[in-house]
Amino acid sequence: MESLFSTFKTTHYFLMVALLVFLIFTIGKFAFKKSEKAPFGAMEDKTTLLVLILSHIQLLIGLFLLFVGPMSNNFSNMGAAMKDSYLRMMTVEHPLTMIIGVALITIARVKMKKKPDADTKYKTVIVFYSIALVLFLSRIPWSHLNG
Ligand code: HEM
Ligand code: HEM
Hints:
The protein is an all-alpha fold. The chain has helices spanning 2-35, 42-67, 78-83, 85-114, 118-138.
């Protein structure tokens, strides 16, 4: 079980890198395309699908780490976990913030599909992805990576 958890943790770490890269890349690219009044084509649609799938896999792995992995031991003693800033971060702040971020990425795609033109499609994705990016950056355990 231990090696399974560490494999998932490593996967969760690499997916973080991939997600941050794709979010920043997509926000920048879409902002440029919006200003150029470029059409919103199949490639742009695929990009948001890729970000969505990566974030959903991250969600699934995160929930596994939280409820099945070693972190789940903290739920039997929440009082102590709340007093420890790292444990509070990993059992409460990180999961809650990240779930909201993944929800925003999902909403971005659902709303984007319903928008009538390229301009509003780009705008929807840029706005939702930017908020998700800020939420992700705010609750990544930067000082404990792969620890
Ligand atoms: C805890 C696990 C997960 C939850 C709660 C979840 C939830 C959702 C929700 C709410 C939607 C939006 C449905 C809509 O379009 O109205 C969705 C879509 C989707 N999810 Fe997940 N998901 C999870 C895991 C996964 C995983 C592991 C994958 C891929 C490996 C995945 C791939 C997708 C895809 C491909 C779509 C449809 C995208 C589209 O065509 O717009 N999801 N999911
Ligand atoms: C969406 C729901 C998510 C949940 C429930 C979740 C849950 C967790 C948990 C429980 C841990 C601690 C694992 C342990 O030490 O045993 C963890 C670590 C981590 N999470 Fe998440 N997470 C989620 C999403 C994300 C997202 C979206 C990102 C980044 C974009 C992310 C980045 C990280 C990183 C970098 C670590 C540290 C990994 C390491 O130590 O190498 N998580 N997560």
